[in-house]
Amino acid sequence: xxxxxxxxxxxxxxxxxxxxxxxxxxxxxxxxxxxxxxxxxxxxxxxxxxxxxxxxxxxxxxxxxxxxxxxxxxxxxxxxxxxxxxxxxxxxxxxxxxxxxxxxxxxxxxxxxxxxxxxxxxxxxxxxxxxxxxxxxxxxxxxxxxxxxxxxxxxxxxxxxxxxxxxxxxxxxxxxxxxxxxxxxxxxxxxxxxxxxxxxxxxxxxxxxxxxxxxxxxxxxxxxxxxxxxxxxxxxxxxxxxxxxxxxxxxxxxxxxxxxxxxxxxxxxxxxxxxxxxxxxxxxxxxxxxxxxxxxxxxxxxxxxxxx
Length: 308
Description:
10 helices, Glutamine Phosphoribosylpyrophosphate, subunit 1, domain 1
């Protein structure tokens, strides 16, 4: 393997033992860090390759774990084949939660790692040696899903000093833990390629990602005829995911389908005020089976929603 990118950074690889999700989260003073460091595959493993980052550790590491190697075994094999291994910092975790991590002797100080129960935190070219211990503590002490806990680790790293050069980009990737899920299935796949505050932007994107997950769950519930559950999913926006116009629109559609037309009208009014094209879309939904073929209902929604 050869050196492909000088990526001094801090990251976390982790697994949620309850859901089986696997993930990587990273921040760096490097443009588009998410294009090189994180490698994740559902029900296989996760890899972070940094310092003198080499994508081959990601591709080949996942291949080896998919073939039955544990994360420590896969990492040992790749390091043995790499003459530049002392310039590398690599962490791997497999679907059983086993961790392999390496910080080469030639990585730039401050550099180090901590491997714990279902996670590893690591960094190099950091302001001080408090960064990766702060990450480990935050991950262990934070409640919530894997994405929330990994983002808390990044926040803690930044608060402890972070990358000695500052910040520029960040990424968070979480692969599905559902048994039999396709290798590519992700719960979240988020990147901030260039920003003065990449973690703030990453948290905003995570909120939007959570809304998309709820929208998917709402669609699944609606497809099986459980419109009440679908509406509840769409109404569940939390403080980390303010409701979008599109989410509001589909919530209004569901209410109308359920016969709660009076409740839907104020929502439609807000959506149509934002962009009248939503009204045009509403006219088209019956043809696709997404709304009842009921001209009077449509006319009422569109007329009432235009009322001042």
